[in-house]
Amino acid sequence: MKFEIVTANAFMLYFEQKISDKVLDEVQNTYVALKEIEGITNVTPSYCSILVEFDIVKHTHESLKQIILKKCSDSVGLASANIKPNKLITIPTDYSQNLDLKRVAQHNQLSIEEVINIHSQTTYRVYAIGFM
User: What is d(CA 64, CA 38) in angstroms, rounded to the nearest whole number?
Assistant: First the structure.
């Protein structure tokens, strides 16, 4: 985890710069652990980083960095974070328009039915939803 100061009361935490389940788990676990630290006013996760905003009356960059490093190096600290189990959400899909279906099927040397089966039977993991 790399720390980078971005404002007087905020810094970015950078994780391995690739989108993967491992990095997502680290970001999510750290996000939950950070929400428990007094004096942190906002935590904004992304794919491979977290923006941490804090009360400068309660912390300096360095003091908060040490608290975060201690909490994150303590496997009990991360494990005890109240992490919600993943929810499985089914999203209805309409294939009747065939927008890219033929092209995808031809490109992958599959039938349209095979593409639909592969697409509809796969469980996808969501890394981020929208932006504020």
Answer: 10
The answer to whether 119 touches 84, Cβ cutoff 8 Å, is no
Contact 98, 88 (CB under 8 A): no
- Contact predicate 80/29, CB 8 Å: no
33 within 8 A of 75, measured Cβ to Cβ: no
Half-sphere exposure of 126 (CA within 13 A, CB side): 9
What is the tens place of the pLDDT at every residue in 75-114? Answer: 554 554 556 677 888 989 888 887 889 999 999 999 999 9
- Determine how β-strand 49-54 pairs with β-strand 40-45: antiparallel
| pTM of this structure | 0.74
**Domains assigned to the chain:** 2-79 (3.30.1360.40), 86-132 (no CATH)
Q: With H, G, I as helix, E, B as strand and everything else as coil, classify residue 12.
A: strand
How many Å apart are CA 48 and CA 13, to the nearest integer? 9
Six-digit token pair at 2?
């790399």
